[in-house]
Amino acid sequence: MSTGSSAINARLGDITQRIVERSRDSRGRYLDRIAKAAEAGPRRARLGCANQAHGFAACGVGDKAMLRSGAGANLAIVTAYNDMLSAHQPYEGYPEMIRRAAREAGGVAQVAGGVPAMCDGVTQGEAGMELSLFSREVIALSTAVALSHQTFDTSVYLGICDKIVPGLVIGALAFGHLPAVFIPAGPMTSGLPNDQKAKIRQLFAEGKVDRAALLEAEAESYHGPGTCTFYGTANTNQMMMEIMGMHLPGASFVNPNTPMRDALTTEAARRAMQITALGNHYTPMGRMLDERAFVNGIVGLHATGGSTNHTLHIVAMAAAAGIKLTWADFSDLADIVPLLCRVYPNGKADVNHFHAAGGMAFIIRELLGDGLLHRDVETVFGHGLDAYTAEPALGADGQVVWRDGPQRSGDETVLRGTAAPFHATGGLKLLDGALGRAVLKTSAVAPERHVIEAPARVFHSQEALQRAFKAGELTGDMVAVVRFQGPKANGMPELHKLMPPLGVLQDRGHRVALVTDGRLSGASGKVPAAIHVTPEATEGGPIAKVRDGDMVRIDAVTGRLDVLVPADEWAAREAATCDLEDSHWGCGRELFAPFRAAVGTADAGATIFG
């Protein structure tokens, strides 16, 4: 469907308006703060002489002269580069490309600071995973430290993966008077298909293949520079940054170390230099990311079947801009947004197949055409989302040019238009009931498993469930209740080690589901999983009352999460407790005690920032 001039969907408009009304006071205070910061203009020239000299002491002659007395802009590079993350390793050479682009624009670029970037793939099932969610807050704080020198006129952010992009956004919004462009590095080329990798994981869980075979499969899947190719949180981040206008059009899913990738990086730096307060196209990030932009991000999440982690991250990011989102907003938007993508774990394709089939340009064109995105928004590329229906190409001089994007999908097994979606509603469902509130990723779950009613098996760690599975103790239908995994308990780790054994049980014909106050992220697969349960068990939430054998009902059709225990018995039952001492020490976890004490609830973003 072409974008044309279709009117905004009425329900989308109503949901957006209620967010505006709910956020009026807090958003107003935020905008006032960044307006005051902008009024002061670039602070570099008003710093004390010693302060200023420190800021350019290590620069070359030309850069030093510009910073000392020139009228050009100073661009801050905040980088999450490290060699540990395949997605971030390509960033090693980006600063020099960005510096060249800044000089050509008459300014200077400096690496303002680095932020930590942990790989959840390395820490899955290990102690480090209990630092993972809190790394988002550390990244936000590190971003603020990087920008606190107040010598910058604009900024670019080098980050891709799970907590890194949300942390960078939260930190950057504290300096929302500065323009900001996010620069991706792209996905690795396709390796072993994700469904084959998942099958080998299940065979290993059953003891049918050895560790050498498992390691070989994993190495064939995760084999080079770039993001992992399944549609988890990292690639959902890239979709979100593009549909919210923080990337250049078409930048999200171009492979690393290619001429197009380098040209897009250079062009992003040029654009960051063009939108400062020193010119005529001033686009401060904090003003740009308004209620409409965040609604567009949630729409993209639903339309693509993206990561459940964003029911935390988008809420926390929006709060940093004074915008109050709720899980009800996610749920109501899911009711009107069709599912247009089948990318693993929602299908067999990977993100390279998605990009080849039409990718972001096609998705945005279709959603605009049905009035399911706010068209009239500011982006780093200019005014309006229509520009994001174009895709980049290399011109004769090696620079980026944009051409019309695809009018139809190149592969309807991967990507469809709004006229014939994979499902009429989005890929996430809000659950509510006697066990609290939770979210469930429906897009990867077969419709006949959207309702599960079975006896509970209660565990206080994923390791305990694995031991029970290996001992042959898990037979028949069941709802695995894995609790004391919330943010206050142990930092709310991802629990992916649960998926192979639960997948095996499901494949054996059992009705199986998961209920947990922990996380599973975008890689959660075919097993129905009610996650992010709040209130969490550590806070005395109802999930702490469940006992082995209680009948639990998960209903993703009506949005219910219930335990079928007589009301008087349930009311009289005491909540279980758990000794979490082993999760509070070692691998640096003792340093995060203040975070566990201060963190809010999952439905408020599981953030320490209030």
Automatic annotation (TrEMBL):
Binding site for [4Fe-4S] cluster: C161, C228
Gene3D superfamilies: IlvD/EDD C-terminal domain-like
Recorded GO MF terms: 4 iron, 4 sulfur cluster binding; metal ion binding; phosphogluconate dehydratase activity
Residue stretches making up the Dihydroxy-acid/6-phosphogluconate dehydratase C-terminal domain: 414-606
Entry cofactors: [4Fe-4S] cluster
Domain called Dihydroxy-acid/6-phosphogluconate dehydratase N-terminal: residue spans: 74-385
Presence of keyword Cell cycle: no
Top-rank taxon, per record: Bacteria
EC number(s) recorded for this UniProt protein: 4.2.1.12
Protein name (record): Phosphogluconate dehydratase
